[in-house]
Every structure is written in C-alpha cells, then in structure tokens.
C-alpha cells in the first residue's frame, strides 16, 4: 500500500510540474532611461512651484517617487556630472572645476554606463550627460552612437544657436569685440556672448534639446529593432534651463508676465561669508545684461520668464520621450530616473546663476519610477536626505548587479519601498570660493581682471578683506579655499578651509537654521558656538560617518 501511495504522489508531482513552469515568468533585465536636466532647481509643479508649467514631470512624480531633499556634490556642471557618472565625490576624483577631465586623473575608474555596458547593456546617449563632448567618455561609456542615420530632421548650426538673424549678428559682434580687445583666449572665459534669451516662432527641434529628444526617441527605436532582447541604458540630456534661454515662442506664451513673482530675498545672508556669493559673472557676460550694479525688476521678470519657458520646453521633451517609451511597449520593463546637476539663483540673495554652497544652488529635483514600485509608494514624496552620488549604486542595485567597490554613495533602494525610512543624517556639497572664481570654478585668470569684470572683482575682494581681516591671503582665498557644506534635517552648516589639508583650521563658519529660516537669510554661527562645535564633530565624520543604517 505504501508503494502505491508513493507512486500516486510521484504522478501528481510530475503532472503539476509543467503547470508550475508556465506560471513562473522569467525575470527580465530592466532598461534604464536616464534623464538629465541642466541647471534646473526644483522649479516644477511637483515641487510646489506656483507658476512653473510642467505637466509631464508632474505626472511622472505622481506615478513614481519624488525626493524633497536631494543634493548635488558640487553646484557646477563638470564636477557634478563627473561625480554622478563615476559614483565618487569631487575631491576623490580631483574634479572641482569645469576644465578637468575625470579620465586624465582617474584613467581606470568605472563609470555608470560603462559598468552597464560590461554587463550586457546597449549603452548610448544624446544631449548633455557628461559636461561636454570632450569629456563625453564615448569610447568607454557608450557601446554605440545615437541613430543619426534615422533622423529626418537636420540639426541647426546657426551662430550661437540663435534662430533670429539679429541675435546671430549680436553674437558674432560680441565675440569679435571681445577677441579684439582681450585676445583670442577671452571666449574661453565665457566672454563674448549673445543675448541671454530668445523668443522665436520655431519648431521644438530647431533648438538643441528638441533635436536631441527626437534623436533619443529614434535611437531607442533603433536599439529595440536591432537588439530586441538586449537591455538598454539610454541617457537623454537636456541643456536647458542652462543659459542661453533659447526656446520656441509657444513656451514663452504659456506665461503671463504679470503672474511672475520675483524673489523677496535680494540681499546676501546677514553675517554670511563675503566669499560665499559671486558677482553673477555668467549672466553678466551676456549681451544686454549690466556688467555691474543691480538687475532691474523689469529685467529680472523677463529673465525669470525666460527661465520658466525653458523649463516648460524641457518638460515637453521629456514627455515626448516617455510617451515614446510607452508606445514602444517597454515601459513595464524600464526604470526611469530624472535628475538635475544643480540648482540656480534667480536673483535669490541678490545673484544670478549656480556656483554657491547655499540651498538654492545645491538642492535639486530627483524623481524615480520603477515597474515594481508598489501602489502605496507611487505618488509619494520622501523627505530623506539623498545625494546625486547615490544614483550609481541605486540604479546598479535595481538592475540586479553587484556594486563596484569604488562607489561613495549609498543606494536608496530601501526608500523605494519605505519613503519614510530613517536615512542619512547628512548630505555633503562643496564649492571653491565663489566670489574669486570664474563661473567654470577655475581661479580668476589675469584676463578676467583685465576685462570689464575687473572693477567688480575688486569690489567683491574688498568685502572679503574687510570681513576676514588678518586671515586674508590672496593665494589661499583664490586658489585653495573651499566651502564645505553639510546639510542635516534642520541645518546647513558650512566650513571654509584650505582643501589641501583636511586638518586645516577653518577660516569661517556659516550656520543656517532651516526650521526657522528656510531661505537662509541669517548666519547664526557666531551666536551658537556650542551648536557649531557639535555640528563640526558630525561634519568631521565625513560622508561615511553619516550614512544610513540599512539594517535598522
């Protein structure tokens, strides 16, 4: 009888096995849609902007997870992007300004797309992912070129990228005048620019972001056609809202100038570091912008209008890309992540541009969507402190790959299931002396002092000398002084010291209480010595000492 029972059970098991195999779906390797935006502060509807028209980004945030407190590692293009793409921090890879190529100093470092390429992915990008083509890392990061041969639209190559003839002429004239007066190397410093914005009735694809979005779409289709079973890592980089704000007229027309509110914080923080703010060099280099003195309210409103129009233009391109992903039928197997490399001052603290250690320049939008995300999480917002350097380990973990050992970020995958989980105790950002650096973060060149910026530099330098007194040392302040920022849940704590020596005595502290002063209007370091001492101990633990305990 026992033998009969055993045989009966075996028959049942054998009979069930094919049925079990049919019910188990094979796990697919996810695609990665990597969407980068240049110079976008959290000025979109999903982050509470009362004016930005960004339906596509808002929709993605409503479907995925938005991070309220995401921070870049350095608020300028090349260092921020090099950090994101290598998964290492600016000082580790020794990239703290725009003219250093990370491969020159880190020839063997494994970039994010390179790692995915080595693990069977087709990797490619359009637009701005790395800082520029020179630093694009094409040979190692990307397995193929974009599908230029599938494009039916010709790329515009007008002077300065302008659509209007009058602006093209202004660009030519401005460049020629600067070269004649200051020499052929002057444009390297960003001088000789055309107008800061343009309103032209042209199709989206006339300007670079529209073209690159279309290129990304046809490239995705080409990859799916040629390698349908191979996962892809597709980067699409949007240049706007970086200057110059050149966008089709229809996006400009979305906004009523009368509805555009200007910042009420037009002054530097009380008792803030005199070296902490620059003179808006990047904007002032544009044609028609005052080379010194305040920006009038009328001009400020126009400039903010141009920035907002650029944001809406970029939002539309991202919407087209995601729609194409849906139509291709691969959305349910694609991870989508949207990030900006740093924020931007729109007159806040009296300046225009990025390149400061304050909240407005370091806080960025960060949104992620994954196919496996639960309904309870979709549309949620996490207040956890996260950093752009965390993107590499996060995407890698989501793809089921082991983490490379060189990474200096922390995967925030646990937050995708529990957005309110206790997380990092601090995020870290840095930027070298904004007041005495060109907007590429390199020390002031002799040429810059000889241009129309000379008097402005002297004015800023005078304020630093007056504040710093005996601590003032030109070589230190221009070449080696770094502002290090630690952002905790409540505070922004800033330590100014010589970056050559981790044990150097700080020359200045800044402390801002975000619970009582979210706009960072007053430095309260001097009146809170005990708190400064406490935060300095936390700061000295570094990023490693402030990571989340994933076991808790």
UniProtKB/TrEMBL annotation:
SUPFAM superfamilies: Alkaline phosphatase-like. Residues 30-400 form the Sulfatase N-terminal domain. Keywords: Calcium, Hydrolase, Metal-binding, Signal. Its cofactor is Ca(2+). One of its GO terms (molecular function) is iduronate-2-sulfatase activity. GO terms for cellular component: cytoplasm. Signal peptide: none annotated. InterPro entries: Alkaline_phosphatase_core_sf (IPR017850), IDS (IPR035874), Sulfatase_CS (IPR024607), Sulfatase_N (IPR000917). CDD domains: iduronate-2-sulfatase (cd16030). PROSITE patterns: PROKAR_LIPOPROTEIN, SULFATASE_1. Belongs to the sulfatase family. This is DUF229 domain-containing protein. It comes from Aureibaculum marinum.
